User: Fold this.
Amino acid sequence: MSLFDLPLDELRDYRSSSTEPEDFDEFWAKTLTEARGHALDARFEPVPTALRTLDVFDVTFAGFGGHPVKGWFVLPAGTREPLPVVVQFLGYGGGRGLPHVHRLWASAGFAHFVMDTRGQGSGWNGGDTPDPVGSASSYPGFLTRGIEDPHAYYYRRVYTDAVRAVEAARSHPLVDASRTAAVGTSQGGGITLAVGGLVPDLVAVAPDVPFLCDFPRATTLTDRDPYREVGNYLKTYRGRTERVGRTLAYFDGVHFASRGRAPALFSVALEDRTCPPSTVFGAFNAYAGADKTIEEYDFNDHEGGGPFQEAVQLDWLPGRLTA
Assistant:
């Protein structure tokens, strides 16, 4: 594999051509108002584990449409005073899995809330949250479910779940709601950007090799899934490109980035054919917050920095959460 996207000096200046819908803010304000019409009903049930240094809770809260969404809540064992919280969103196809997988942030001394992704969880870690909403015909995967109508689109439900996940995390008595960060890799990074644009008082966001950014470029540049799902859909449903593009514009990380104000730590991999580097830089360069940085991994594909990026986050995030 080799570098296939723009040269690095051009990436650093790249601007997305994604066009923001005129009613973008109205669409999301109405969506969240409707979701908040349902009681959050966040429940935290203790889970016995062999993790002696951590306390684990099985979480259920009401997401989009009042649908139950699962998660894990993890604390340093014996926590008695409210802690800053890291809310994590997961990569494409995976679910919350088993609780011992999620040790990093609680081991660093923070509360950690992991949101399960509705309908996913058979690609790697298992999931426990069904998506009770059907859709019209779609290409296998999640990216084209309801793709011809922004109101019916799958990620309208997921992004709404994510905002409600932040609210659920903040509702726990051992969470300091004023010190909330959002993190995620790939799909989780795209969801993190959406939350950063929809929740104005986060103290930090860390989107790692984010997916769901700069759809006009991503869907025409890479032939890898998940972005290729859109092209495969349009191969069958000819003549619907404009309609599909209009829907995707409501969910493009570039537009959420332009509303983000919290300190932000991005990462990008320059040989990433799943989330091409120009799409990540499209979101990073649009990010409105003044305190932003991006880690560049020059010879990596979609694995990005992996544990090296986690080490960067462990160095960067505590200063924002404990300030």
In short: Strands lie at 43-47, 54-62, 68-76, 83-89, 111-115, 175-185, 204-208, 264-269, 292-297. DSSP finds eleven helices and nine strands in the chain.
